[in-house]
Structures are given as C-alpha cells and as structure tokens.
Specification:
Residues 5-349 form the NAD(P)-binding domain. This protein is an alpha/beta fold and 375 residues long. It has a seven-stranded parallel sheet, sandwiched between helices. Helix 1 (12-23) packs across helix 7, helix 4 runs parallel beside helix 5 and helix 6 crosses helix 10. Helices cover 36% and strands 17% of the residues. The structure holds NADPH dihydro-nicotinamide-adenine-dinucleotide phosphate and guanosine-5'-diphosphate-rhamnose. Residues 7-8, 10-14, 31, 33, 35, 39, 63-65, 85-89, 104, 130, 132, 188, 190-191, 197 line the site of NADPH dihydro-nicotinamide-adenine-dinucleotide phosphate.
Length: 375
Amino acid sequence: MKKALITGITGQDGAYLADLLLKKGYEVHGIKRRSSLFNTDRIDHLYQDPHEADVRFKLHYGDLTDSTNLIRIIQEVQPDEIYNLGAMSHVKVSFDSPEYVANVDGIGTLRILEAVRILGLEKKTRVYQASTSELFGGMPENKNHKGFYDENSPFYPRSPYGVAKIYGFWITKNYREAYNMFACNGILFNHESPLRGETFVTRKITRGTAKIALGLQDKLYLGNLDALRDWGHAKDYVEAMWLILQQETPEDYVIATGVTTSVRDFVKMSFKQVGIELEFKGEGVEEKAYVVSCSNTDYQIENGKEVVAVDATYFRPTEVDLLIGDPTKSKTKLGWKPQYDLAGLVADMMASDVNHFRKELMLKTAGYSVKNQFE
Ligand code: NDP
Ligand code: GDR
C-alpha cells in the first residue's frame, strides 16, 4: 500500500486530494496546524477512529515553519509521495504579512525537500510542489498581453505571495537537478469549488449571490471587476497533481483550462444561475450592478435593486490583470482530462451555497439563529 503525506490537508485542495488518494487505496497522512477552534471541517467526513483496525487516514500536528517537526513526521511516515500544499495562499493578505509568507510558502518548501534529503529518502519519496500561475504574474507594461502561459513562459510575480512561490518553484527544480530527486512543480491556475475559502473572489461571489437571492444580505462589495482569471474545478486539478507524481521522469506541468473570464462575468454567471439577470453601470470605483429581472419565484428581489458595488479596500498594490494557461503538455503527456467547464463549476458552487443558506434562512425564520453567543 502506497503512503502519501499531504501538507495543507485541511485546505481546499488537501481535502479533495486526500479523498482521491484514499479512493485509490493509499494510506493518507496529513499535517494540520494546531488552532484554537476545529479547522478540519473539510476533511471530517474522512476521519477514521484511530482505535479501529486498518486505519488509512491519519493526522499529525505540524507546521511548515518548524523543520524539526517536519523531519520527525516524515521519518515516522516514510511516505512514497509528499504533496506540499500547505501555504498562506491569499494573494492580497500576502501584502500584509510578507515575511510570514516567505517563511511558509518559500522556505517551507525547502524544509520539506531538505527533510527528505537528511533522512536519505531521495530515492524513495516523490515530492509534489504546489506552484502557481501567480509566478507568471504579468508585466505591468504589457497589461493587455493575451498570450497563453505554458511551461516555458517567463515569470514576473506581482505579490509577496508570488515571489515566495518563485523560491518554492526553483528550490524544487534545484533539488531535482542537484540530488536527482523526483520533485515536480504543478503550475496550477486558479481552481475553485464549494470548498474554496470564503475570501477568494469566486466563493465570495457565490456565497454573496445565494445570500442576496434569499434575502440574507443586501449587497456584495468587490474589488477589481476587470481582472481576468483561468478558473477550473479543484476536483479536476488534484487528479493532475497525482498524475504528475506517477510519471517515469520528474517534470513540471501547467494545469489550466485555457479559457479566461472576468470577475464581472463570473458575477453575472452566478446570479444567472439563480435566475437573476444583472446589468453593470458606471466605471472604476463607481461601477455597480443592478437587478434587471428575476425569473425564479422563490426569490423576492425587485428589479432595479443595487446588488454589487466596488470597494477600493479590495484593490491590490500590484495586480495580476490577466491569466490564461496552455494545458497542452498536461493533456498530452499526463493524459489529464478535466470534467468541469466554467458553467459546471459555477453551477456546483451555487448549488452548494444556496443549499447552505437555505438552511440558515430556515433557522433564522424559526428564531434559532444566534446573533451574540453571550446573550
Ligand atoms: P487553502 O488556503 O485552502 O489551504 C492552505 C492549507 O495550508 C491549509 O490547510 C492551511 O491550514 C495550510 N497552512 C497554512 N499555513 C501553514 C503553515 N504555516 N504550516 C502548515 N500548513 C499551513 O489553499 P488551496 O487548497 O486553495 O491551495 C493549496 C496549495 O496550492 C497552496 O499552496 C496554494 O498556494 C497553491 N495554489 C492554489 C491555487 C488555487 O487556485 N486554489 C492555484 C495554484 C496554487 P489551515 O486550514 O490551518 O489554515
Ligand atoms: P488570486 O485569487 O489572487 O488569483 O489567487 P482571488 O480569488 O483572491 O482573486 C482573483 C481576482 O479577483 C479580484 N477580486 C477580488 N479578490 C478577492 N479575493 N476579493 C474580492 O473582493 C475581489 N474583487 C476582485 C482580485 O483582485 C484578483 O484579480 C488565487 C489563490 O488561490 C492563490 O493561492 C493561487 O496561487 C492563485 O489563485 C492561482
């Protein structure tokens, strides 16, 4: 039975990957951080009572800033595959905590690779590094560059997150070349799902849309509506991570859909999913979206209502204007076949959020929702 160790197992990708590897018959180990509240919501359904026989899912306390604990866990687990997904992954927040991001996302990758080397596991343990399209970033003087990014495109990161991930990318490549390790970068473009963190733009939009439609929220405030992203489904992307580590030779791969869409159009698609047509008017910080029509009788929302506005707080000091990837290599070499297109992704996320907030509405209507836990 193969053993996998996943850092960042409590995150969006960690949860989907753990599920996939368990289905493939792996013994799955995950590193979770100690937190004051439970942080295992996304993987609770995979939990197995450690007192039972044949447990194949095990969690270990750890942190990418602590090399002694990484060495101990890797020594104990002796994994065949390590998926380094742990990171402070929010681009905007990385401007607020740049040193921490460098430590976790950059040096954290080194700590994993070095632990494998110190333990003499270079020949046994394959390492996947969660690299990102933020490496490409975008050149400010070339804002309207419409080219597709592939494995040979130059990097120009636009945030402390992107810069930290550049270190992770190169140190992975360097350990592959210097020590002959099976260490690979998956350069993944944005991927989303019903498990996506609530402060990333897609999930913020699908949650906001569901709440507005159900009358639980008045308005949704967003930042740059012009940003263009290549959005795929996380379920498809974790399959690619696994494929990357099953090849004969270690290589780096771009994982993307090849389609780019603006934040504004993602908003329109989400509202349309619940039968609400929107019209955007105005420019820059003055831009707003209004309801044009609502074909779903479940929702009491009047035409002309302002439901989206821009709040400059969400603008970034430096922005990545446009991302679009070329997945030719991953499709031909890995045989990677994504199941979801953007419409399918939006439908999946909206169904999940509408379902969730319908329950909240029922609790509120019945007088069970608690406003202040000290009351
Ligand atoms: P999430 O933010 O959902 O998950 C990040 C995970 O990392 C969480 O489990 C988090 O733990 C953990 N983590 C954070 N800090 C530390 C630390 N100091 N030590 C150990 N673990 C830590 O990210 P995603 O699942 O979306 O992304 C997975 C990886 O892929 C990340 O490295 C991200 O940068 C990268 N990536 C993501 C893309 C995307 O579109 N989703 C695209 C390209 C790359 P906790 O739950 O306790 O916060
Ligand atoms: P990104 O994702 O920065 O691409 O990084 P995010 O969803 O945060 O932003 C995408 C684009 O939307 C614009 N935007 C907003 N973003 C957020 N978060 N909140 C808003 O209100 C908002 N309004 C507009 C942003 O400016 C941006 O242009 C994600 C992360 O998962 C990274 O870890 C990963 O490496 C990359 O995707 C690929």
